[in-house]
Amino acid sequence: MSGHTDERTGETDPVDLLLESARDEAVESSFHVTGVMMQYYEVCERELWFESRDIEIDRENPNVVRGTHVDETAYDEKRRNLSIDGRIAPDLLDDGRVVEVKPSSTLVEPARLQLVYYLWYLDRVVGVEKEGVLAHPTERKRESVELTDETEQQVEDAIRGIYDVIRSETPPPATEKPFCESCAYYDFCWSC
Q1: Can you tell me the distance from the alpha carbon of 170 to that of 165, in angstroms, rounded to the nearest whole number?
Q2: DSSP characters for 85-131?
């Protein structure tokens, strides 16, 4: 496998590993990154580790229900099921822009990273440059998001971090965060 060597581990750089497997179906790799993984990485690495092991979240959690409702009902007239390579699934395209819909701006940085990852993936894997919009319809807020050198570096650093988290045999230690009690993994996380 060609590509750069990760200076930290001496292995193929996780960014190159992801790109090679995404661009060439003949390249077998169990490493992939979804938009949700990007968001979890930014919010809580422990949550990411659980998700990477297919430990299902509590779908009846009020915050999950609210987010799912906003996701399914906002911009309903423009929404199309869009999935690219089974790795990214933007909520919708609007006037050629990739739109990610979130119920609130409380965790804006994770949502922004998820959207920038979609833009990075489209650019680096598909060869399509797009602009993005982060939308919070319940707050009537919209924010333009672009892929820049700085945000591209954020994405690539996050890919490397995700790789490290999901390769670990054990979850990262639990650390109390202001939003832990509203997390769908709360009971599971704090009982392990």
Answers
A1: 9
A2: TTTB--SEEETTEEEEE-S-STTHHHHHHHHHHHHHHIIIII-----
Q: Which class for 40: exposed (0-12), middle (13-18), buried (19 or more C-beta within 10 A)?
A: buried
DSSP bridge partners of 84: 88
What are 123-171's pLDDT values in tens digits? 999 999 999 999 888 888 899 999 999 999 999 999 999 999 999 999 9
CA-based Rg of the chain, rounded to a whole angstrom?
A: 17
At 37-74, the pLDDT tens digits run 999 999 999 989 988 998 876 556 555 454 454 455 55
Q: Tell me the one-letter amino acid at 154.
A: Q
Whole-prediction pTM value?
0.83
Q: What is the pLDDT of residue 44?
A: 92
